[in-house]
Specification:
Elements: H1 2-18, H2 24-33, H3 58-64, H4 80-93, H5 103-112, E1 119-125, E2 134-140, E3 144-149, E4 154-158, E5 162-168, E6 171-176, H6 184-187
Antiparallel strand pairs: 1-2, 1-5, 2-3, 3-4, 5-6
């Protein structure tokens, strides 16, 4: 009958589309002898590579003066609110700095804390001219602190061969710069070991 011929033609065309890698004779052979398992071929999608956004290099940052503080902004009074924020941050970090708190626990938290806004004093140094410098830390780099003093002078103090003292709510902590040569972001994951004596 006419209908069966149309059905046969449709099936043959359908199978040819479904199994494009097989020849007509192979398809007919499969139809005559066993059941047909249709295969679906996916078109391979070409993945578009994402372009990584590149940041500025250290040289470009220096040329653009991204980390430089303008002379008109180098005033101690401007950064006093930053110091007040830092004190509140440390109190929250150390759960209030209570008198019965264990000093070594507070010390370990201070070593990992962000020091931007802290008031520090250089207590010991191999270079006598650094001793006595006191001010608010404005920027911390791997090897130096940038400190603004009460005289509105911006001082760049190296960490190497210097000991800094930091006071908050009567608790005084000492930072040995030679063992502290890390970026602020790296210090949070660093494990500091307790040592009996440390030389400059």
């Amino acid at each position: 009958p006419h209908g069966s011929e149309k059905a046969k033609a449709f099936v043959n065309a359908f199978l040819k589309r479904s199994m494009p890698k097989m020849k007509d004779e192979a398809i007919q052979d499969i139809l005559n002898r066993k059941a047909v398992v249709l295969e679906h071929y996916y078109k391979k999608k070409t993945k578009q590579k994402r372009k990584k956004t590149k940041g500025f290099t250290a040289k470009q940052r220096r040329e653009m003066r991204l980390f430089e503080i303008e002379p008109e902004q180098q005033r101690y009074a401007i950064f006093l609110p930053l110091h007040e924020l830092w004190k509140q941050y440390i109190r929250d970090l150390c759960h209030g700095l209570k008198p019965d708190a264990q000093p070594h626990m507070i010390q370990s938290k201070l070593l990992k804390a962000d020091l931007h806004g802290a008031i520090v004093t250089v207590t010991k140094s191999k270079c006598p001219s650094y001793v006595g410098i006191t001010g608010i830390i404005l920027q911390e780099f791997k090897h130096v602190f940038k400190i603004i003093t009460k005289e509105d002078k911006l001082k760049v103090v190296p960490k190497l061969n210097n000991v800094f003292s930091l006071e908050i709510d009567g608790f005084i902590s000492y930072i040995y710069g030679s063992k502290f040569q890390l970026r602020a972001s790296e210090r949070s994951a660093k494990k500091f070991k307790l040592k009996g004596t440390i030389d400059l």
